[in-house]
Amino acid sequence: PSVRCLGKERTLGMIKPDGVSGNYAEEIKRIIVEAGFSIVKERLTQLDKETASEFYEEHSLRSFFPDLVSYMTSGPVLVMVLEKRDAVTDWRGLIGPTDAQKAKISHPHSIRAFCGKDSQRNCVHGSDSRSSAEREIKFFFKDVVSDDIASQHDEL
Ligand code: RTP
Ligand code: MG
Questions:
Q1: What is the pLDDT of residues 88-141, one digit of tens each?
Q2: Which positions are catalytic residues (predicted)?
Q3: 98 labelled as ligand-binding?
Q4: ipTM of the predicted structure?
Q5: CB within 6 Å of ligand 1 — which residues?
Q6: Where are the beta strands (DSSP E) in 1-156?
Q7: What is the pTM of this model?
Q8: Which residues are catalytic?
Q9: Cα–chain-centroid distance for residue 74?
Q10: Average pLDDT, stretch 71-77?
Q11: What is the rounded CA–CA span in Å between residue 88 and residue 152?
């Protein structure tokens, strides 16, 4: 039995449609690995309206929700299970604040500062708590759905 999993935590990371279409995925993955995360699973998938709405259902009453769903369905996303000690907090720290314009000033080394555009098109997603991480990992990796563009794979 390996000891390498002791104390580790998992979170869900996602490269949103603007990140994938802008060809930022490889550089973002390099930043992720350099920051000490293992990319345990990854899958490229196209969200439909129903899936995007369910994923962000906590925001369903917000005025930006219809725009958010349009944005999230505008092209493929890359979802990843990321693992390290304190993965949830550390991934949120690495991506930076929601508004990419603000991130460029307050967190210039964050991923959203690097490839985000504004308060909506912010390039990446991160689970905001351990309970969200558990829900979101199950959301994308419990079953392999038939419309996958690339097949799910396990690197462990
Ligand atoms: P995420 O869930 O995607 O990691 O982003 P977050 O926690 O930093 O921000 P959250 O409040 O959960 O918002 C989810 C996503 O909705 C879009 N948004 N647009 N137009 C707006 O004012 C607005 N506000 C939020 C963003 O894409 C945000 O990441
Ligand atoms: Mg959020």
A1: 999 999 999 999 999 999 999 999 999 999 999 999 999 999 999 999 999 999
A2: 125 (pros-phosphohistidine intermediate)
A3: yes
A4: 0.98
A5: 59, 64, 68, 98, 119-120, 122, 125-126, 128
A6: 9-15, 38-45, 77-84, 124-126, 153-154
A7: 0.90
A8: 125
A9: 16
A10: 98
A11: 22
